[in-house]
Amino acid sequence: MSFPYGLQNSSEKVCLTKIGKLPRLKSMFLRSIYSCVFFCSFIFSFLFCAPDFSSSQNKEQSLQKTLGAFLLADGWDVLEETKSKIGALPARSPGSESDTEATVNLGRKIFSDRNLSLNQIQSCTTCHILDGRQAGTDGQSVSRGTFGQIGRRNAPSILNVGYLKVLFWDGRKSSLEEQAVVPFLDPLEMALPSEAELLNRLNADSQYADLFKAAFPGSPSVSIASLRIALSAFQRTLITPSRFDDFANGNINALNYYEKRGLRTFLNLGCTNCHEGYMLGGSQFKKLDTVYSYNPNDQGRYEFTGKDEDKKFFRVPSLRNVTLTAPYFHDGSVRNLEAAIARMNHYEAPREISASEITEMISFLKSLSDKNREN
């Protein structure tokens, strides 16, 4: 087996080798007993069989390092903190209880319909690509609209959007239903002139009459209200459970040693102060121009609230699928995750984050990816 960073002497390696070979017992009680036996054996061998150390301080440091490695190799310690500070993604997103197969099917067609843009070549999937490894984004710093208009902000991932309580980088909408029509009418996106024109486009496609009737038998007419419901229902199905969720649900072997080490670093550095809950972000707003310069014409949340204290504040993004959704930040100005983490160090971390810690955290962040898109 490969050994964790910093483990040098033979007693440390023997201990972790034995831990790694523990049977995957279904009973936590039996595994705890098994682990305890090996751990006590290790402490005995460490104290009485290990080579001499140059000083008691070196011996204490080595023991502390190995104790930490033991806990990570077993995983129970970091699991308990994960459950309390993050948690696993629920199986269904809030509000999906009343969604039906018919409303989801209608929403799926609307989401991918290019005829609902002014020049009939752009759909929601243009900026929120669902197939392949794009993970609900388009991979661009900022998206382009129907006639090549350059947008102001990076298109966030649409995956798991049903779990979010605030939407857009400035948080100007609080539900999928409120947000649903915005892209169709935005001049920098699909650029339709009015809701009336959106209805005209829907009525021009004979398939919609049957789809609306099936989805809303009590009020079968094509309407903006029904569009909002259907589009939201489809988006609530875009759920991406990950190996991290398996771990948070109690499967201690779902993450390897290095991913657990990265998770421990993530927790120790206080990253959950902003990237909190099972979405690992998405509900707070933070100011981002205190160190690096961003677009001076983008005032962030202030443009929605009109409050001076909201100038340059943007929504903290969710970290789910983060290794698949570059570039980063509201303006898409950072192309790789290493640079993004290093940049955030200047804003939030109480100390300088080392290169090895960044590598560790990226190992953990990869475990947040959709199982079907794992990188």
TrEMBL record:
Sequence intervals crossing the membrane: 28-48
InterPro entries, alphabetized: Cyt_c-like_dom, Cyt_c-like_dom_sf, Cytochrome_c_Peroxidase/MauG, Di-haem_cyt_c_peroxidsae
First and last residue of the signal peptide: none
Keywords recorded for this protein, A-Z: Heme, Iron, Membrane, Metal-binding, Oxidoreductase, Peroxidase, Transmembrane, Transmembrane helix
GO CC annotation terms, alphabetical: cell envelope
SUPFAM superfamilies the record matches: Cytochrome c
Domain of life, per lineage: Bacteria
Keyword flag Cell inner membrane: no
Chief place of localization: other
Chain ranges of the Cytochrome c domain: 102-219
Subcellular location: Cell envelope
Protein name in the entry: Cytochrome-c peroxidase
Molecular functions per Gene Ontology: cytochrome-c peroxidase activity; electron transfer activity; heme binding; metal ion binding
